[in-house]
Amino acid sequence: MINVGVTGASGRMGRLIIDNILRFDELKLTSAFDLMNIGKDVGEVAQMGTLGVPISGVDDMESVLKESKTQVLIDFTIADATAVNAPKAASAGVSLVIGTTGLSPEQKKAIEDSIISNNVAGIISPNYSIGVNVFFKILAEASKYLGDMDIEIIEAHHMHKKDAPSGTALGAAKVISEALGGKEFVYGREGFAPRGKEIGIHAVRGGDIVGDHTVLFAGDGERIEIKHQAHSRQAFAGGAVKAAAWIGNAKPGLYTMQDILGL
């Protein structure tokens, strides 16, 4: 049994992750953190019944993690919060599963450094969906044969998503660029400049779209589209909980979803 904590426990994603933890035989919820509902039972807040796990404030994170013997912390919050809280957890000897998007390169490196220096295990992934990570694998393979075509990435999310482009779109662009030996990215298009050989990335925000990602390979007289659609956030929550079970048994170090899925 692996003891797991959740940040943003009162939020929509936090509640869904908790629901998945409760249904996962190898995991036990031992701590929950948020800025709201401090002191209340997290199960009652999430309308799941009394769980015996109070919501704690992030200022008490290190002591609560140690007292509750939490082994893995799942963090799907916002970049500025994760940048502060993840190193706290690592310093308490807790491994990390981070799904927060919008982290700056400096924030991500600081978190990675804290994982390494505190000798814990950790994963920082833009998307925990199993389908998306297979999507990345397909893109890497397709790019070997379609690299001479024009490549555009179009992503669409709900109106409340703050970061653009999405972490998954950037992840797809990185996979393609690495497969082709390095390509520059351009975000959106305007003006009169001719198209170069860069990868175009475009963001759409509206309604309640959970997450659509399409990669377009366009050539003379033909095109290929590779697409992933998330129909609910369960795809992300389920993958994150599986990652927590894997990370809880892993040796110290940095991992990817490709490692966890054996891709």
Automatic annotation (TrEMBL):
Q: Which GO terms describe its biological process?
A: diaminopimelate biosynthetic process; lysine biosynthetic process via diaminopimelate
* Record-listed (S)-2,3,4,5-tetrahydrodipicolinate binding positions: 158, 167-168
Q: How does it assemble?
A: Homotetramer.
Q: Which domain of life is it from?
A: Archaea
- List of catalytic residues: 157, 161
Major localisation: cytoplasm
Protein name (Swiss-Prot/TrEMBL): 4-hydroxy-tetrahydrodipicolinate reductase
Q: Which UniProt keywords apply?
A: Amino-acid biosynthesis, Cytoplasm, Diaminopimelate biosynthesis, Lysine biosynthesis, NAD, NADP, Oxidoreductase
Residues reported to bind NAD(+) = 8-13, 34, 99-101, 125-128
Q: Where in the cell is it found?
A: Cytoplasm
- Molecular-function annotations in GO: 4-hydroxy-tetrahydrodipicolinate reductase; NAD binding; NADP binding; oxidoreductase activity, acting on CH or CH2 groups, NAD or NADP as acceptor
The catalytic activity, as recorded, is: (S)-2,3,4,5-tetrahydrodipicolinate + NAD(+) + H2O = (2S,4S)-4-hydroxy-2,3,4,5-tetrahydrodipicolinate + NADH + H(+); (S)-2,3,4,5-tetrahydrodipicolinate + NADP(+) + H2O = (2S,4S)-4-hydroxy-2,3,4,5-tetrahydrodipicolinate + NADPH + H(+)
Q: Where is the Dihydrodipicolinate reductase C-terminal domain?
A: 131-261
**By its UniProt entry, which InterPro entries does this protein fall under?**
DapB_C, DapB_N, DapB_N_CS, DHDPR_bac, NAD(P)-bd_dom_sf
Q: Which family does it belong to?
A: Belongs to the DapB family.
Dihydrodipicolinate reductase N-terminal domain location is: 2-128
Native species: Methanolobus vulcani
| GO CC, one annotated term | cytoplasm
